[in-house]
Design brief:
Number of strands: 0
Radius of gyration: 15 Å
Strand content: under 5%
Distance between the termini: 10 Å
Order of helices and strands: HH
Structural class: mainly alpha
Mean pLDDT: 92
Number of helices: 2
Length: about 70
């Protein structure tokens, strides 16, 4: 079973967003310009990143179930 390239790209972008969100939330590092910052922007990055990670995880789990 080989992971399709579009799922690998989504997974990569999701990992980046989760990492940035954790840095924003826990280390208080600001990656966004001041005009674009809002409260709990790190949490939003983490949630969006996890949402982008899910398709690859579901694909892998379905592949494991099929044998």
């Amino acid at each position: 079973m080989k992971l399709p390239i579009h799922l690998a790209v989504l997974d990569f972008i999701g990992c980046i967003l989760v990492g940035l969100g954790m840095a924003m939330e826990f280390a208080e590092v600001n990656f966004l310009p001041e005009a674009m910052q809002f409260e709990k922007d790190g949490v939003v990055f983490i949630v969006v990143g996890i949402a982008l990670l899910l398709p690859a995880v579901i694909y892998i789990l379905r592949g494991l179930r099929q044998g």
